[in-house]
Amino acid sequence: MKNEDPCTGVCQWDGKTGWCLGCGRTVPEIKAWRKLTPYRRTALLRELPRRVEQLSKQQSAETTPAKRVRRS
């Protein structure tokens, strides 16, 4: 398994989840990255795309203006 760090260099955190907007990790996960077992690192790497996708959807929903509903 590669020891590559998933950091993308964005390093901004979502206030609700605590996940980095770039890589999806939390600050404790970033700090512990080199000490994680290969099993834990692999499990986290599998989870990160889901987190980043969720953050992306959340940001899209927040920046999309609400649709106005016509009342008759």
Computed CA radius of gyration, to the nearest angstrom: 16 Å
Mean pLDDT: 89
Residue stretches low in confidence (pLDDT < 50, at least 5 long) are: none
What's the β-strand tally? Answer: 0
Distance between the termini: 61 Å
Portion in helices: 40-55%
Which structural class is indicated by helix and strand composition?
A: mainly alpha
Annotation field: number of helices:
2
In what range is the share of β-strand residues?
Answer: under 5%
Largest sheet, strands/sense/barrel: none
Element string (H = helix, E = strand): HH
Molecular shape:
elongated
Q: How many distinct folded domains?
A: 1
In short:
The protein is mainly alpha-helical. The protein has helices at 27-32, 38-63.
Question: What would your notes on this structure say?
Answer:
- With 72 residues, the protein is an all-alpha fold.
- It has one domain (7-58).
- It is 44% helix and 0% strand.
- The longest helix is centred in the C-terminal third of the chain and has 26 residues, at 38-63.
- The termini are far apart.
- The mean pLDDT is 89.
